[in-house]
């Protein structure tokens, strides 16, 4: 199943800073869920095509006509920290 | 509160519109009856003070509630999450826009499980919703606020979303009608994404006629959602009163005999099948061998898609930010730790794991193949029957806290509802009786689910109407 180190690895991939208590609980809860999910391992699925999407359409196109976009202020309005017409974030190497 | 306001709160959408057209009801008075009612259920996260300036159309004067997962310009939209606290979108979702354009007014935004992940509404960052049928009972989820509002006389109808059962299961637990249309029937533009290949907008209403009325206003192709198809010719009002010549499929291993189905739910379902026969319908035994694996496939596919969709909540463009003192990565991690609740974290973890190197084929790849098998099971069944019927939920509304500590037990609530979104087909839940919960106590609503082939909504609503008339289910009495 899934142990604490694997949980920690996945949490890093998912950009989640879990507490120690959350890590412990997650390991046991995910194991129970995965045990159920793994029942599909018993099915014979050789030669079965995967379905990622149920709508039978591809490449939906529209005319390439320029249109006005939203004003920058409108998209920045919801940001926790916007300045000089941009999103401000901490430095990657802070 | 006057008797009149209580009476107005019990109207259906079609019933209210009829009175408005006859000059017997003022739209402002109808809106006011809801707006002034006390929300003791915690069904709403935001309520409108006035109906605004309604447009003209088929829904002119109808007040409608909307699940808080739909973006509404300038109106708080949280999806039940702390990470979007205080967020007001810059635009309005197409589904909401279509209702407003048809003359409806927005009553408010309804409470929900965070990012639509849950079956009890206990995963909302803004508190539980109470099922109006019993104060200690959950309303179901994730559209729990929408279901409770409609059942409890706080809205005549509400929009919801259904990814694995999030409209049908709460509709069942609250004794109302829940419709999940065919994937693509209604635009997803402005509907905060959980699992994009499964998410579908739908309706929670007091009756089948209202479900058709709202669907007709909503089923338009939208250039902003390339997967939206609409429904050609719209949906007319259902009129059928019998089921002569209609064939209903029952799969024994995916029905009342399945593990975990309460005795009272099984009894109600058996009576429902008898009623179908009395109305001239035929019950046909069918086989859906992979439907029982729906939950397993769903709990790989939905978390996988959610883990990518929810990557956008990173403290940069909207909502909460935490951990500003560190570097960029630690800001992301701290924001997401502070902003997401336990269930959302669990699903992000599950999805990230299933998509990670070394596990992708064993989990995600296999789940997509099971999805194909589930679709072909339905296709084969529909070669022989018009609709598949099941109980909507294995159990009636459970007590708050009963399953909160056991994620897998909670997931099993959606046993009968997950295969349909995996196949992209429409399904409806209608209230079909009352049953005493296994744990004892007063009787609570049971739902009957009908599922049909893609774009079979018109026929499905017709059959549902005939059943609704014959069932004569008494809605919950609205109290002042």
Structural summary, described in words:
The complex is a heterodimer of chains A (94) and B (480). Chain A is mostly helical and 94 residues long. The radius of gyration of chain A is 23 Å and the shape is flat. Chain A contains three helices and two strands. The two termini of chain A are 37 Å apart. Chain A has helices at 4-13, 20-37, 72-76; strands spanning 82-83, 86-87. By secondary structure, chain B is an alpha/beta fold. Helices cover 34% and strands 13% of the residues of chain B. Chain B has helices at residues 3-9, 13-21, 27-35, 94-101, 144-151, 168-174, 208-218, 263-278, 294-309, 328-339, 342-355, 361-382, 407-411, 419-423, 457-471; strands spanning 44-47, 63-67, 105-110, 157-162, 177-180, 200-205, 247-250, 282-285, 387-391, 427-435, 444-451. Chain B has an eleven-stranded mixed beta sheet with strand order 1-3-2-4-6-5-10-11-9-7-8, with helices on both faces. In chain B, helix 8 links the parallel strand 7 (247-250) and strand 8. In chain B, helix 1 (3-9) packs across helix 3 and helix 9 (294-309) packs across helix 12 (361-382). The chains are: A mainly alpha (94), B alpha/beta (480).
């Amino acid at each position: 199943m899934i142990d604490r180190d694997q949980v920690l690895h996945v949490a890093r991939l998912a950009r989640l800073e879990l507490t120690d208590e959350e890590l412990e609980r997650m390991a046991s809860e995910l194991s129970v869920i995965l045990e159920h999910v793994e029942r599909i391992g018993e099915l014979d699925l050789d030669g079965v095509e995967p379905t990622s999407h149920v709508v039978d359409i591809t490449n939906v196109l529209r005319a390439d006509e320029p249109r006005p976009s939203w004003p920058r202020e409108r998209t920045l309005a919801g940001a926790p920290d916007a300045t000089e017409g941009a999103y401000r974030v901490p430095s990657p190497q802070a | 509160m006057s008797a009149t306001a209580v009476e107005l709160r019990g109207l259906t959408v079609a019933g209210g519109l009829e009175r408005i057209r006859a000059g017997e009801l003022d739209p402002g008075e109808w809106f006011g009856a809801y707006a002034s009612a006390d929300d003791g259920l915690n069904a709403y996260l935001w309520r409108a003070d006035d109906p605004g300036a309604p447009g003209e159309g088929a829904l002119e004067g109808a007040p409608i509630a909307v699940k808080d997962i739909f973006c509404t310009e300038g109106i708080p939209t949280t999806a039940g999450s702390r990470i979007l606290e205080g967020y007001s979108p810059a635009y309005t979702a197409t589904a909401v826009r279509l209702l407003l354009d048809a003359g409806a007014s927005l009553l408010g935004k309804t409470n929900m499980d965070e990012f639509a992940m849950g079956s009890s509404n206990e995963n909302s960052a803004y508190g539980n919703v109470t099922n109006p049928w019993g104060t200690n009972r959950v309303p179901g989820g994730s559209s729990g606020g929408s279901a409770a509002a409609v059942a409890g006389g706080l809205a005549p109808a509400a929009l919801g979303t259904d990814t694995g059962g999030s409209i049908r299961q709460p509709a069942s637990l609250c004794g109302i009608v829940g419709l999940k249309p065919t994937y693509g029937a209604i635009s997803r533009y402005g509907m905060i994404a959980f699992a994009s290949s499964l998410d579908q907008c739908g309706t929670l209403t007091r009756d089948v006629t209202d479900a058709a009325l709202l669907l007709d206003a909503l089923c338009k192709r939208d250039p902003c959602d390339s997967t939206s198809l609409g429904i050609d010719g719209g949906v007319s009002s259902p009129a059928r009163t019998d089921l002569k010549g209609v064939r209903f499929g029952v799969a024994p291993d995916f029905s009342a005999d399945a593990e975990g189905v309460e005795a009272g739910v099984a009894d109600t379902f058996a009576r429902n099948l008898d009623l179908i026969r009395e109305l001239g319908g035929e019950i046909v035994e069918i086989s859906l061998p992979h439907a029982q694996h729906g939950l397993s496939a769903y709990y790989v596919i939905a978390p996988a898609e959610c883990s990518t969709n929810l990557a956008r909540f990173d403290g940069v463009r909207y909502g909460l930010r935490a951990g500003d003192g560190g570097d960029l990565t630690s800001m992301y991690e701290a924001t997401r730790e502070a902003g997401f609740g336990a269930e959302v974290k669990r699903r992000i973890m599950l999805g990230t794991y299933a998509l990670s190197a070394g596990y992708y084929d064993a989990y995600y790849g296999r789940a997509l193949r099971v999805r194909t098998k589930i679709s072909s099971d339905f296709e084969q069944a529909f070669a022989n029957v018009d609709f598949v019927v099941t109980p909507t939920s294995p159990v009636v509304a459970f007590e708050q806290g009963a399953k909160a500590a056991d994620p897998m037990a909670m997931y099993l609530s959606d046993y009968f509802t997950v295969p349909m979104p995996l196949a992209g087909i429409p399904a409806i839940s209608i209230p079909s009786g009352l049953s005493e919960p296994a744990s004892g106590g007063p009787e609570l609503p049971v739902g009957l689910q009908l599922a049909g082939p893609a774009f079979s909504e018109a026929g499905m609503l017709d059959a549902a109407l005939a059943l609704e008339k014959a069932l004569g289910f008494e809605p919950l009495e609205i109290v002042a």
